[in-house]
Design a protein that fits this description.
The complex is a heterodimer. By secondary structure, chain A is an alpha/beta fold. Helices cover about 35% and strands about 30% of the residues of chain A. In chain A, the strands form four sheets. Chain A has a five-stranded parallel beta sheet, sandwiched between helices. In chain A, α1 links the parallel β1 and β2. The chains are: A alpha/beta, B alpha+beta. β10 of chain A pairs antiparallel with β4 of chain B, so a sheet runs across the interface.
């Protein structure tokens, strides 16, 4: 599928320049990409997305002007809520920009710094996207998605060790390869959404693929990073079968 | 029931004795075998005593319990207090349920005079069994409820003597009434009166204690912040001066640049000066420049103070506040207290780590305000549940309020939510203040 590209910058010269660079780069390298909308008004992008609700997996290059109404960021947040797969890149001219905030708030892919060899920045960005498309373009990537605070988080499903109910009510804690997240959810809902996870006891959903070893005597499942969970006797048979298939 | 009806059968008395002992053992987390063996050994004696006289039974049972457990109590004071608390609680609930239940019993069966306790009536057996069931359920229920409320030691010091007093009073009054052969409604009234009075005075005392404590904490937080705000103002002024200086300095450098020195050496020096000023000024001035957007004085003061402290400990700080924050979407003092604790924990953890990194982000949006504190840490983190209870800190209680206090504060404010995470080798805490949805 062709990667649709949206560009927005309120400075028409920069917009035209960027559009030209992007289109040339696509042409020269024969990338499977296309500039769909290039505009000075973000509202055009909003309208377009509204008219094409099925559009996903697009690249958005948004200008942010910290001194005005932060419109670029608001749109980015909207886009992120609409589509977790959207690639968002900010065009910025500010040194003091809050990169960390944007990374967390909208999971920004990258930043293009105005006037700092724009062409090279855009070229490497498109090359990276192209590589990504080629690598896992058609294979469905398996993600685990949830909300922490007010932002959407997704992690590689295979990286999950287990999920347990938290000490705080209505919360669960997710453990995985070098990460841990606490968020509001019900274990039973997660079990329904992700049938690959295994409910070894009332408060634990585990990812069988990540089991390091099982001690049937002590009834403990060992995960990487010294994490472990116990299980009731009734699960022994099921876990033994699992272990054999590995 | 038992307390009021000494004529009951041996079987019922035995069952009663076993239930009390088991409840005390179970709730008191008594795992030693000697307790249960001791209970079993003296069972015949105790049952006989309880058939003869309830008051004597309770006194001798208490003494026996103390003798059995004395050795363990000397080793562990906390365990002793807990076991005594459970023991008195079990007795109290037992007496109350008994007297109420026996009233209902008398009311339902309306026995002929003097035949009330002969245990020969139909259904009376079943009735007292249900009574035991209620005692067990009530005890388990109440103890579960009590464990949910986090009582402090000082509060327990109020509650425990009250319970002991009520139990003793009830026993003696009931015994007195029994000797005068006028139990029935009187006993019920006395029990109700004692219980209400004790419950009332205890709750009053605890409420006052908690209110005083909270007020003291709030005043101390306020005072601290006020004394720090002068410092913050000075600091901000010096930031402004630095910014002004940086601006002028850069302009001067540019002016020299325009003059284009012919000497190569001079040009090199100039370039070095450029680099140096860029680095030095960028680090010192820009690091906290977002602070001007934090327009809540208390929060600003807190952040400046804590981050300066962190900087002094060699921690690399990254601070961001993209949009201005003029007002907090929750109770200011509560937020300040929580943020203070979170910052303390983060500073302490990152100071111990190798990379000594800390990121503090304030994010204001239409729906909420989010405060993110991330820090590097050393080694393996304890499980989250354990951290909740004791806090990150391992340095004893004097260090102030741990995460347990944060929990209490969060419980009182529905608009506040705290979540923790670990990502990219940083431990993070995200405090979200949900803005009120305007209808």
């Amino acid at each position: 599928m062709t990667l649709p590209i949206f560009i927005c910058d309120d400075d028409e010269r920069i917009l035209n320049q960027y559009q030209r660079i992007i289109q040339n780069t696509i042409m020269i390298n024969a990338y499977d990409m296309e500039v769909l909308v290039a505009t000075t008004d973000v509202q055009d992008i909003r309208d377009y997305l509204h008219q094409h609700p099925q559009l996903t997996d697009a690249l958005f290059c948004l200008d942010i002007d910290l001194h005005s109404e932060l419109t670029g960021i608001d749109v980015a947040v909207e886009i992120r809520h609409r589509d977790l797969d959207a690639q968002i890149v900010f065009i910025t001219s500010h040194q003091e920009l809050a990169y960390e905030t944007l990374k967390r708030r909208v999971a920004a892919l990258d930043f293009i710094r105005k006037g700092d060899d724009d062409k090279a920045q855009i070229q490497s960005l498109l090359a990276e996207l192209d590589a990504n498309i080629r690598r896992d373009g058609h294979s469905e990537h398996h993600y685990f998605e949830f909300q922490v605070g007010s932002r959407e988080v997704r992690v590689d499903f295979d990286a999950i060790y287990y999920i347990e109910t938290a000490a705080r009510p209505h919360k669960v804690v997710l453990y995985g390869e070098a990460f841990m997240y606490e968020f509001y959810a019900k274990l039973s809902d997660i079990a329904d959404t992700y049938p690959d996870l295994m409910r070894v006891k009332k408060s634990y959903l585990i990812n069988p693929k990540q089991i390091l070893s099982i001690d049937f005597k002590q009834r403990v499942i060992q995960f990487p990073e010294e994490l472990s969970c116990t299980f009731p006797l009734t699960m022994s048979r099921q876990l033994r079968q699992l272990n054999l298939t590995h | 029931m038992v307390v009021v009806s000494p004529g009951m059968g041996i079987f019922q008395e035995t069952l009663y004795y076993l239930i009390i002992s088991a409840l005390v053992g179970y709730l008191g987390h008594i795992h030693s075998r000697s307790y249960y063996i001791g209970i079993a050994l003296v069972m015949p004696v105790m049952v006989v005593i309880s058939i003869l006289d309830m008051l004597v039974f309770i006194i001798s049972f208490s003494v026996f319990f103390a003798l059995l457990r004395f050795r363990h109590w000397r080793a562990n004071v906390g365990q002793r207090n807990w076991e005594l608390f459970v023991f008195v609680l079990v007795l109290l609930i037992n007496i109350v349920v008994s007297s109420v239940w026996s009233e209902i019993e008398l009311f339902i069966f309306k026995p002929e005079f003097n035949t009330a306790y002969t245990a020969s009536m139909d259904g009376e057996w079943l009735f007292s069994l249900i009574g035991y069931g209620i005692v067990i359920l009530a005890t388990l229920g109440i103890s579960k409820w009590l464990s949910k409320i986090r009582f402090t030691q000082r509060e327990l010091n109020i509650i425990f003597p009250q319970m002991v007093y009520v139990v003793i009073m009830m026993l003696f009054v009931i015994e007195f009434l029994r000797l005068r052969r006028s139990q029935g409604v009187y006993e019920f009234l006395v029990v109700a009166f004692l219980l209400t009075q004790a419950a009332y005075s205890t709750t009053r005392a605890i409420a006052t204690l908690r209110k005083d404590k909270q007020e003291a904490e709030i005043t101390s937080v306020k005072q601290q912040l006020e004394s720090m705000s002068i410092y913050t103002k000075q600091l901000e002024q010096s930031y402004d001066q630095m910014r002004q200086f940086r601006h002028d300095f850069k302009n001067l450098l540019l002016a020299i640049d325009a003059g284009k020195p012919e000497d190569d050496k001079q040009a090199q020096y100039l370039a070095a000066l450029h680099d140096y000023s860029d680095q030095a000024l960028a680090q010192n001035v820009l690091r906290f420049s977002d602070l001007t957007r934090v327009q809540v004085p208390t929060l600003k003061t807190l952040i400046v103070t804590k981050l300066t402290l962190a900087q002094q400990q060699g921690i690399h700080i990254h601070f961001e506040c993209l949009n201005s924050i003029t007002q907090l979407a929750s109770d200011e003092i509560t937020v300040i207290r929580i943020v203070g604790i979170l910052l303390d924990n983060a500073i302490e953890a990152s100071a111990d780590s190798i990379h000594k990194q800390m990121k503090v982000l304030l994010i204001d949006s239409d729906h909420d305000q989010e405060l993110i504190i991330e820090n590097s840490y050393a080694g393996q983190l304890p499980p989250v549940a354990q951290m909740r209870k004791q806090g990150f800190s391992t340095k004893g209680e004097n260090r102030g309020f741990g995460l347990a206090n944060v929990e209490t504060l969060l419980d009182q404010h529905a608009e506040l939510a705290l979540t923790n995470y670990i990502a990219a080798e940083l431990y993070g805490a995200s405090l979200v203040l949900t803005k009120e949805v305007l209808a």
